[in-house]
TrEMBL record:
Protein name in UniProt: DUF1398 domain-containing protein
SUPFAM superfamilies registered for this protein in UniProt: YdfO-like (SSF160419)
Top-rank taxon, per record: Bacteria
Species annotation: Flavobacterium hiemivividum
Length: 129
């Protein structure tokens, strides 16, 4: 099974959103099936086979999540981030401003789903291979 240290080594290679596909491939190689990111404090829960899971501690002070999702604005931030125009923390701040409470990466389905505070899916996108 994978460890947080192995995941950290893979994550340390990521400088911008354009590095994301390489990170996903590294996670696949480790046996990670998916993970949930909590925007309010940066905690991430990784899961694998047979209900195996590991979670990080919070990564930053609490961010206020806007109560209403602004899908159009979030898409603008997402496109900028994926184009390498923002770092991870800036993207998390922008997600919070846009009402995104968390996102789930499903490595089996190769999707990333962004959720609002009510748990409703705002955007579902395919992860590039």
């Amino acid at each position: 099974m994978f460890t947080l240290e192995q995941i950290k080594l893979a994550h340390d290679k990521v400088q911008t959103g354009s590095d994301f596909p390489i990170y996903i491939q590294d996670l696949i190689n480790l046996g990670v099936k998916g993970y949930d990111t909590h925007v309010n404090d940066g905690r991430v829960s990784y899961y694998g086979n047979k209900e195996y899971a590991v979670s990080t501690d919070k990564k930053y002070n609490l961010l206020r999540i806007a109560p209403m999702a602004n899908k159009e604005r979030f898409i603008e931030f997402l496109v900028m981030h994926q184009g390498g125009q923002s770092d991870y923390f800036t993207f998390c701040q922008q997600a919070a401003q846009s009402g995104i409470a968390n996102w789930r990466i499903d490595i089996i389905e190769m999707t990333c789903t962004y959720y609002d505070t009510a748990g409703d899916a705002i955007i579902i996108e395919k992860i590039p291979a």
